[in-house]
Write a sequence for this structure.
């Protein structure tokens, strides 16, 4: 590695004497003096700074960083990776400890550049605000171990050859853990680990915490939870191929860890999406071993992963043919129309809102489409919102639609992601057909539904599938999909199928349809609107069509 410069800082020491035992003599006190801090700052965009610290009469050094993290070094050397993107200055305080607990400290500023960025992993990890992860206890392989290198070829391995746990194999101290990753206003990641009194510890490491150290007998021990730990996303260095890893590692400050204690704080992210994370970590006292941990956002330990988790399903549609990533600063009217008004009888549902094209109701900001329903008088209605469509601008027959969204909340809200036959409104509904990719009502916040409407199967007689027990669809993004072929229409939430419909020549689902996004208020499905409701938004990260 190339280094920009060596900075030598030497300032007169400030004495800080800690509490001493009553019988400690002055001859036992050694005040560290002549504290010198050398830094080697990388120039390759890695953000790495190597510290080399020395002081007379010092036997250990503590490095305090401005993000709250701390590192200890016995010999005064430390490698630290700074991960804030761009060229930034960081304040570092070094404390040198001498005999009797006395100390001297110095603060310096280092300027270092970091170019590594993985916004997708950061978003999945934190949900853009805060996300709680659990051990994926309900699936096999949620804990595994194998050799770090292939014994024959010496190549890096990415599988757990020795041991892959069956579902629910472990103790409660393992399965009740909560791992919380949060995003600060400054864009930094913080980590909180709740172990509720005990942590599951790998057997060879149990003596550190008063355990027995019996071979292959992992134990539940009081290790200590972690709070407000600094997290860095860094380039993975294992050498695992791109098709088996994201290329990113999670680096926790200090000695923090994720759920199962193996004496390491760096976890390579092999796979991550909205609800599933697969990690690889090298055991600290036995670097020949690699451990594998599967996490989920479901408290019951079940996994909602991609369609690869669903045996036998493979999408027929893999080529992206149309999309909107909402990356600009305004809605793309080459792709979308605004639906204005309340329609006839609240668009046929008795809805209480008036749809507008005002920025307060629909806008593109920070890479998201934001549709906001508000308590606001307009044209004789008490609420405003927005509804946009691709009618006459993008219509298609058969394909897969994928939408990543976070939903509006509150009693009376009714956000929807759906499709209508291109003949509407010129042709009558439900004869033109309707596919509801996602519907959610704030009065039933634990349920997501999808539906098929056509002649003889509409309104209260629609064909409906649902996902129940959801608790974060208004606080975190999820992926909603429909796979539409001439034989079958299948609906998914985060890759899990919850409705299948057998298509045929007798249905209207063999002609062009167009896309709609909206947030309704009240009506036949939205129900009673809360008296204190003011406003709420649906945020859409992207919408993509594959054929």
């Amino acid at each position: 590695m190339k280094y920009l410069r060596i900075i030598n800082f030497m300032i007169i020491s400030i004495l800080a004497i800690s509490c001493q035992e009553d019988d400690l003599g002055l001859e036992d006190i050694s005040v560290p003096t002549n504290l010198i801090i050398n830094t080697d700052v990388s120039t390759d965009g890695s953000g790495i700074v190597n510290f080399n610290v020395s002081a007379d009469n010092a036997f250990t050094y503590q490095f305090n960083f401005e993000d709250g993290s701390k590192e200890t070094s016995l010999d005064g050397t430390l490698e630290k990776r700074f991960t804030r993107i761009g060229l930034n200055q960081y304040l570092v305080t070094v404390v040198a400890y001498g005999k009797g607990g006395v100390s001297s400290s110095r603060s310096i500023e280092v300027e270092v550049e970091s170019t590594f960025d993985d916004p997708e992993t950061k978003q999945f990890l934190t949900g853009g605000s805060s996300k709680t992860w659990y051990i994926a206890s309900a699936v096999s392989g949620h804990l595994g171990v194998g050799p770090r290198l292939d014994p024959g070829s010496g190549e890096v391995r990415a599988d757990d050859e020795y041991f892959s746990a069956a579902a629910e194999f472990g103790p409660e101290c393992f399965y009740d853990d909560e791992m919380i990753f949060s995003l600060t206003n400054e864009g930094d990641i913080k980590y909180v680990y709740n172990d509720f009194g005990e942590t599951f510890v790998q057997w060879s490491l149990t003596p550190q915490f008063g355990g027995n150290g019996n071979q292959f007998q992992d134990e539940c021990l009081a290790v200590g939870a972690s709070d407000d730990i600094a997290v860095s996303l860094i380039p993975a260095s294992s050498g695992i191929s791109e098709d088996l890893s994201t290329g990113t590692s999670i680096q926790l400050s200090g000695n923090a860890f994720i759920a199962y204690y193996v004496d390491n704080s760096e976890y390579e992210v092999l796979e991550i999406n909205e609800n599933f994370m697969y990690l690889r970590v090298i055991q600290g006292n036995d670097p020949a071993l690699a451990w594998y941990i599967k996490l989920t956002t479901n408290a019951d330990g079940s996994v909602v992963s991609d369609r690869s988790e669903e045996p036998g399903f493979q999408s027929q549609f893999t080529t992206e043919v149309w999309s909107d990533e909402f990356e600009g600063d305004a809605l793309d009217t080459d792709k979308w129309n605004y639906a204005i008004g309340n329609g006839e009888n609240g668009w046929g549902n008795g809805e209480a809102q008036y749809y507008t094209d005002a920025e307060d109701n629909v806008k593109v900001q920070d890479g998201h489409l934001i549709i906001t329903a508000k308590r606001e008088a307009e044209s004789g209605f008490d609420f405003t919102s927005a509804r946009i469509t691709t009618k006459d601008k993008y219509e298609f027959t058969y394909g897969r639609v994928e939408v990543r969204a976070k939903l509006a909340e509150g009693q009376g809200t009714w956000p929807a992601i759906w499709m209508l036959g291109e003949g509407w409104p010129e042709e009558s509904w439900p004869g033109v057909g309707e596919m509801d990719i996602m519907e959610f009502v704030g009065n039933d916040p634990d349920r997501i539904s999808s539906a098929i409407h056509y002649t003889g199967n509409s309104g209260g007689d629609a064909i409906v599938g649902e996902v129940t027990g959801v608790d974060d669809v208004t606080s975190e993004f999820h992926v909603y999909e429909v796979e539409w072929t001439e034989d079958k229409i299948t609906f998914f939430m985060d890759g899990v199928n919850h409705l299948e419909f057998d298509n045929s020549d007798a249905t209207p689902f063999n002609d062009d349809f167009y896309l709609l996004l909206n947030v309704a208020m009240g009506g036949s499905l939205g129900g009673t609107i809360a008296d204190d409701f003011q406003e709420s938004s649906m945020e859409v990260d992207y919408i993509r069509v594959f054929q």
Notes: Residues 1-24, 305-312 have pLDDT under 50 and may be disordered. Residues 119-126 form the longest helix (8 residues). The chain has three domains: 3-114, 119-305, 313-546.
